[in-house]
Amino acid sequence: MKTIKGPAIFIAQFIGDKEPFNSLASIAKWASGLGYKGLQIPT
Question: What is the pTM of this model?
Fold first, then answer.
């Protein structure tokens, strides 16, 4: 995921059945580990 840039990430494109993409907490931890400061959550 080296090509994604920005302070936040739209998580809908990553949600799935397998870790770390199967819960908000694990997605947040994954994104934080990549340096992101926020998540955009679909409504």
Answer: 0.70
